[in-house]
Each structure stands twice: as C-alpha cells, then as structure tokens.
Amino acid sequence: MVTPQKNSILVVDDTPNNIRVLFDVLRSVGFNVSVVKSGELALEKLSLIQPDLILLDVMMPGIDGFETCRRLKTDPSSKDIPVIFMTVLSDVESKVKGLQIGAVDYITKPIQVEEVLARVKVHLALRNTQIELKNEVTEHLEAEMRLQQTINELQKTQTQLIQSEKMSALGELVSGVAHEINNPVNFIGGNIIHASEYTKNLLKLIKLYQEYYPNPVPEISEEIQEIELDYLRDDLPKLLHSMEVGVQRLQEIVLSLRIFSRTDDTQMKPVDIHQGIDSTLMILGHRLKANKDRQEISIIKNYGNLPLVECYIGRLNQVFMNILTNAIDGLEQAINSQKIFTPFIIIKTEVIDSNFVIISISDNGLGIPKDIQKKIFEPFFTTKSSGTGTGIGLAISQQIIAEKHHGSLECFSEVGEGSEFRIIIPLQQEQ
Ligand SMILES: Nc1ncnc2c1ncn2[C@@H]1O[C@H](COP(=O)(O)OP(=O)(O)OP(=O)(O)O)[C@@H](O)[C@H]1O
Ligand SMILES: [Mg+2]
User: Fold this and answer.
1) How far separated are the first and last CA of the chain, in Å rounded?
2) What domains can be seen in the chain, in order of their start residue?
3) Which residues' Cβ are closer than 6 Å to ligand 1?
4) Which ligand is nearest to the CA of 325?
C-alpha cells in the first residue's frame, strides 16, 4: 500500500539554474526533493525511490524527456507517478505529444515559481486522493474476499454436516435392520436343511407303505385323494428347495447390508472395492427394478482385476451411492420424457499407471448441458425440485475423493448421450 503523505518530488533537468530554483522553492514549502540530470539517471533512480511526482525536462542530452516518460510509463512500478513536463517548446504539438504519452501537465520555461507550485500542489492532491481511493477499494476487495471465504467454509461445513447426518442415519438404520434380520435368517437357513432331510425321509416312508400295503382302508384312500398325495410328493421338495434358495439370498442381502453400513471407518483399510459397489447396488436394488412406469435399469459390470485398495470403504460407498442415485434419477427423468427406453448403467473398474484405480460410472440418460456441468460440484446446486434434491451429493463426494483419498472425481457428459462420473484414487495412500 502506498502512503499518500510522502510528497516527495523528483526533478529531472540538466540546467543548473533551473535545478537550483526548483530545489529551493519546493524545499521551502516542505517537499522532499531529489534531483537527477538525465533521463537515464532518472530511470535508474526510479528503481530505488518512488517519488509522488516527477518534474521532467523535455530537452536533455541522452534520451529526451518524451522517451524517459514513455519508458517509465511502461514500468508497472512507476507508471502511476504523475509526470509534469517542463518545456521551452511552446508549440501546441509538443504539449499534445507530452500529454499523449502520459504526462498529466506541462510547465513552460522560463519557470514561474507560483505556477510551478500551484500545478505541483494540484497534481499531488489528485494523486493523494487517487491513492486513498485505491487503498479503500483494495480494503473493500480484501474484506469481500474474506467474507466469501467464510461463506464457502460455512457451506462446506454445512454440507458435511447434512450429509454425514444423512449417511450416519442411513448407516445406523441399515446396520440395525441387518442385525435384527441376521438371527432369524440364520435360524431358518439352518432348519430348512433339516426340514428337507425329514421330508425326504417321510416321503420315502410313505412310498414304502404304499409298496407293502397297496390296498389301504377306504379312509386312507380318501385322505390320499383329498391331499393330492402324488402332487404333494412331487411339489414339496421343489418348494423346500426354493425356500433354501430364498434364505441364501437373504443371507447375501444381510451380508451386503453389513458391508455397506460398515461404521469402523476411522482408519484406512485395504478393501475389495467391488464388494463395496455390489453392496451399494444391493441397497439400491428396489430403485433398479422394473415398475409400472418403466422397465428395469440394467447394470452392466465391467470389473477389472483389482488389488485391494487402501481407503475408507464406508466413505467410498457413500460416493457410489450418490453417483448411482443421480444416475437412476437422471434415467427416470429420461424415461419420463420419452427420450430413452432401455435404461442402463455401466460400472467399469481398472488399474491405471499401476498405482491408481479408476472407477467409472456412466448412464445413458439425458446428459448434462455444459453450463450446468460447471456447477454440479458446488454445494447446494441442484436441478431437482425442492424436497427431492438438496444438491450436496456431488459436493460431498468430491470432498471425500479429493480430501480423504487424494484422488479426483470428474464428470464427462454430452447432452443426448449420457453422463460419466470418473473416480480416480491411489491404490495406496502415501504415508
Ligand atoms: N447422472 C446424471 N445425469 C444427469 N444429471 C446429473 C447426473 N448427476 C448429477 N446431475 C446433476 O447434478 C446436480 C447435482 O447433483 P447432486 O448429487 O450434487 O445433487 P442432487 O442430486 O440434486 O441432490 P442430493 O444428491 O443432495 O439429493 C443434479 O441436480 C443434476 O442436475
Ligand atoms: Mg444427488
């Protein structure tokens, strides 16, 4: 910041008489005066001092006043210093020339002391006001920047709070449900095996009875007809088998729920990313299924051969959840507007540059226009109606990828072709 009250003046002149008069007059009213005798020396001096005003003679040996002025106006450190020309040339042309190359005023030689003082004072006053204004503007800008920073930080914190609340509520719910379901499911699973065995034995016994007693009493014959024994014998094992399959599926679901809601996420651990994606897909299963308005959203998995990846898997699942939910929302919108009829999501993973894993999730939805693409990672930016979207899914996802995993999350999208979200994270975090 420049202080306006310095009021020092540099006189550039090669005529001893002029120098003496100017020096005495300016000193006598309290200015700091320095003197140099040529344009070259003036430019040299300007690299050392910053006068508030320059009185510049036009005719000097070496570079003349015009050239000196031109040069000092191209240097950012001296270009704002007001220059007053001193010239014996009273023709209009050279005055105009001086003003055109950046002088603020001119004085005609021989010098009139009162005129010099009057002009110097006016231009110094102007210069001082200009500096004060500049300082004020800078202060304002700085204050505004600080305010903006604070707002950004507040928004970030708010985003984190909302999402972590959302996720921990979901995580708790999921882990609670998984825990409650786990016991009865295991209990049914264990007993079904015995039930199948017992049923097989009973059916075998009935068969034996029928072989050795082919003509039972009427009451038994009636009962056999009544319960449709032949059909029962055929159907019961099938029915038990499908129950077994069902229970196995339930057990898988419970396992997925447990993986998804993993809350022991205070430390990074090497994990199977595919397991994380699959458990997230499981949780979203109900949204992928066909319903009365549309067909099923197909998931095309293109999983590469991945090693274990060092990460906070709970946090990564949160990112998968956000991106997949957006893709599903987008696909539903595309279906509703009759733009697509076979919705799909492709999930591709691979190792790149031997040290990074790339996880790409793309959909064949409507795509995102370029002007919207610029904003999607901003907190609270949403194109969804209020109540449907809060606009923090991608903001928090980017934070998780960039800050927690030192990776990157980028969007590639063309209108009419769909959107791809690409996550890149290191396989191992640097210590
Ligand atoms: N796959 C996608 N297809 C089309 N638009 C998308 C897609 N993903 C994100 N967007 C756009 O990016 C915006 C921001 O997404 P973000 O997940 O941050 O917020 P949201 O989904 O609107 O709300 P929230 O996730 O907080 O419930 C969305 O409103 C949508 O306009
Ligand atoms: Mg979202």
Assistant:
1) 42
2) 8-111 (3.40.50.2300), 262-431 (3.30.565.10)
3) 322, 326-327, 330, 363, 365, 368, 376, 381-384, 389-395, 419
4) 2
Determine contact, residues 123/84, Cβ cutoff 8 Å.
yes
pLDDT at 111: 86
Residue nearest to atom 29 of ligand 1 (CA): 382
Structure confidence by residue, pLDDT tens digits, 80-103: 999 999 988 667 787 888 889 999
* Mean pLDDT value across residues 64-69: 94
* Segments in 312-354 forming alpha helices (H): 313-336
Fill in the DSSP letter of residue 294.
B
What stretches of 6-59 adopt beta strand conformation (E)?
A: 8-12, 32-36, 53-57
d(CA 115, CA 308): 84
pLDDT in tens, 200-248: 999 999 999 999 999 999 999 999 999 999 999 999 999 999 999 999 8
The span from the CA of 276 to the CA of 313, in Å, is 7
What CA–CA distance (Å, rounded) separates 372 from 354? Answer: 34
Mean of pLDDT values over 142-170 = 83
SS (H, E, C) 214-254: CCCCHHHHHHHHHCCHHHHHHHHHHHHHHHHHHHHHHHHHH
Q: Bridge partners of 35? A: 11
Query: How do residues 406-415 score in pLDDT, each as one tens digit?
Result: 999 999 999 9
CA 62 – CA 158 distance, rounded (Å):
66
Asked if 393 and 319 count as a contact pair (C-beta separation under 8 A), the reply is no
Span from the CA of 147 to the centroid of ligand 1 (angstroms) = 27
Q: For residues 102 and 318, give the distance between their C-alpha atoms in angstroms, rounded to a whole number.
A: 61
Rounded-to-integer distance, Cα 99 and Cα 427, Å: 65
Residue 115, Ramachandran bin (φ over 0: left; ψ between -120 and 50: alpha; else beta) = alpha
- Structure tokens that stand for 426 in this block: 């290191």
State which amino acid sits at residue 391: G
- Please answer whether residues 339 and 289 qualify as being in contact, where contact means their C-beta atoms are separated by less than 8 angstroms: no
Name the token pair of 249.
């599926």
